[in-house]
């Protein structure tokens, strides 16, 4: 007699940011959802209408075709609702973006997506009534997602897992106009965490912050599942470790140094560009032998700095690209660089850089990210150390022209495979059902 098949368990994924929205904030959730069905889980994603956002990438949503994934959308909340007639809107100039962000933090607690809570809870309860969920998975920011998860836990009493892509209270760019604003966020976080069944973070630093602030939690209540990359996004030659772009004879092909992503707050291109300028000023013979490529949102103020430094012949701006095209640019580069001014952020680009198996130049402070880059064989420099950045570029160029550039080894690359990381998430899910 044949053994009856076991129906997949159903998980509700609460994710405000989800494809076809673009930018790095959607990648982690997308890849978890993409691979959950391979482990016997059926995810239903509760998200919003993607219009009125800074980037759109239909290729990301296409990755879910043919997979056992349901996506349910409600109307957006926050500023996006004022731009619902537009697919894509421009990122404001930085001073205006900062002003709007701080104004938002003053008015809304925990964030300007709080208006989504009521409609998301109502839709989730209706979905659960149709076909019950086995558990709820909420990813943040925005941390309104955690409040939605908490409300659902109280209503349907299913296991609830929180995913911190960034810290809540200790986020470096969170603005608290008064101590009461900070206290309100702390208390909301505490209420949410008391309702959770388990917590995951992207790095140890965030885990330590949560444990230090909320003493009712234990070390075993929080697991670390890092950011990662999807091997399926890369060509077979790169997956096999043969993705190196060979230069021509010495001096024939410029060393291509690429940055993928946006610039905001202290994540700026200024120090890198000044380092390039200083390198060429000190060694004029190197001009024309390095090409700086920017993939993503490059603002007018960034272009003005390029012009002031006389780097128009060195800098090439490609703008925002669909994800497959972005990956193609990473693979066609010789060195990939990034910058982060804090020790808690987990930029997804770092792990895609590792997946591209390229040498990495990281402008980062001491902390877990620096350790990650060094483990991958990259170079690290303090973000504002212009002389250090200039020296590192010169060292990379010397290796490039000797054909000696090396990326991370397979033992490092394999740790960040998105499918493997989804397997770790599933193992955690299933542990919550053990007697």
Question: How would the blueprint of this fold be written?
Answer:
Elements lengths: L8 E6 L12 H10 L4 E8 L9 H5 L7 E5 L19 H14 L8 H15 L4 E6 L3 H13 L3 E5 L14 H17 L2 E4 L2 H10 L8 E3 L11 H4 L15 E6 L9 H13 L7 E6 L4 H9 L6 E5 L3 H9 L3 E5 L8 H8 L4 E4 L4 H8 L3 E3 L4 H16 L8 H4 L4 H14 L4
Parallel strand pairs: 1-2, 1-4, 2-3, 4-5, 5-6, 6-7, 8-9, 8-11, 9-10, 11-12, 12-13
Features of the shown structure:
435 residues, Rossmann fold, 2 domains, globular, 15% strand, 7-stranded parallel sheet, 16 helices, 13 strands, 6-stranded parallel sheet, alpha/beta
Summary of the model, kept short:
By secondary structure, the protein is an alpha/beta fold.
What does this structure look like?
By secondary structure, the protein is of the alpha/beta class. The chain has 2 domains: 9-228 and 417-431, Glycogen Phosphorylase B (Rossmann fold); 232-415, 3-Layer(aba) Sandwich (Rossmann fold). The protein is 39% helix and 15% strand. The protein contains 16 helices and 13 strands. The chain has helices spanning 27-36, 58-62, 94-107, 116-130, 144-156, 179-195, 204-213, 236-239, 270-282, 300-308, 323-331, 348-355, 368-375, 386-401, 410-413, 418-431; strands at 9-14, 41-48, 70-74, 135-140, 160-164, 198-201, 222-224, 255-260, 290-295, 315-319, 335-339, 360-363, 379-381. A 7-stranded parallel beta sheet has the order 3-2-1-4-5-6-7, with helices on both faces. Strands 10-9-8-11-12-13 form a 6-stranded parallel beta sheet, sandwiched between helices. Strand 9 (290-295), helix 10 and strand 10 form a beta-alpha-beta unit. The longest helix is centred in the middle third of the chain and has 17 residues, at 179-195. The chain starts with 8 loop residues before the first strand and ends with a helix. Mean pLDDT is 90; it is low at 245-251.
């Amino acid at each position: 007699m044949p053994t009856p098949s076991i129906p997949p368990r159903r998980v509700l994924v609460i994710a405000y940011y989800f494809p076809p929205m673009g930018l790095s904030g959607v990648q982690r959730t997308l890849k978890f959802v993409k691979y959950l069905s391979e482990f016997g889980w059926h995810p239903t994603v509760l998200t919003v209408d993607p219009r009125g956002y800074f980037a759109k990438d239909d290729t990301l949503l296409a990755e879910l075709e043919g997979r056992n994934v349901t996506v349910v959308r409600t109307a957006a909340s926050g500023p996006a609702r004022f731009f619902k007639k537009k697919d894509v809107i421009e990122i404001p100039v930085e001073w205006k973006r900062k002003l709007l962000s701080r104004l938002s933090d003053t008015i809304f607690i925990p964030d300007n997506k709080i208006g989504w809570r009521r409609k998301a809870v109502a839709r989730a309860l209706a979905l659960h009534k149709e076909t019950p969920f086995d558990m709820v998975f909420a990813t943040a920011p925005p941390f309104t997602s955690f409040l939605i998860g908490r409300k659902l836990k109280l209503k349907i009493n299913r296991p609830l897992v929180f995913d911190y892509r960034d810290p809540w209270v200790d986020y470096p760019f969170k603005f608290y106009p008064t101590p009461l604003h900070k206290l309100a966020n702390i208390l909301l976080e505490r209420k949410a965490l008391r309702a959770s069944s388990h917590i995951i973070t992207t790095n140890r630093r965030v885990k330590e912050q949560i444990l230090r602030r909320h003493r009712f939690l234990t070390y075993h209540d929080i697991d670390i599942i890092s950011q990662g990359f999807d091997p399926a996004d890369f060509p077979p030659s790169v997956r096999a470790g043969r993705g190196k772009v060979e230069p021509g004879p010495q001096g024939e092909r410029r060393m291509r140094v690429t940055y993928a992503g946006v610039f905001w707050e202290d994540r700026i291109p200024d120090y890198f560009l000044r380092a390039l300028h200083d390198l060429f000023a000190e060694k004029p013979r190197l001009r024309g032998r390095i090409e700086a490529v920017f993939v993503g949102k490059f603002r007018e103020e960034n272009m003005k700095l390029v012009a002031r430094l006389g780097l128009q012949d060195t800098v090439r701006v490609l703008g925002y690209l669909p994800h497959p095209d972005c990956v193609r640019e990473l693979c066609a580069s010789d060195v990939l660089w990034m910058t982060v001014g804090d020790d808690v952020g987990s930029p997804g680009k770092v792990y895609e850089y590792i997946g591209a198996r390229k040498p990495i130049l990281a402008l980062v402070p001491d902390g877990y990210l620096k350790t990650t880059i060094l483990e991958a064989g990259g170079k690290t420099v303090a973000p504002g150390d212009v002389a250090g950045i200039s020296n590192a570029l010169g060292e990379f160029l010397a290796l490039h022209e000797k054909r000696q550039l090396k990326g991370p080894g397979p033992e490092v690359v394999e740790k960040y495979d998105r499918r493997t990381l989804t397997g770790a998430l599933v193992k955690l899910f299933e542990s919550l059902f053990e007697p």
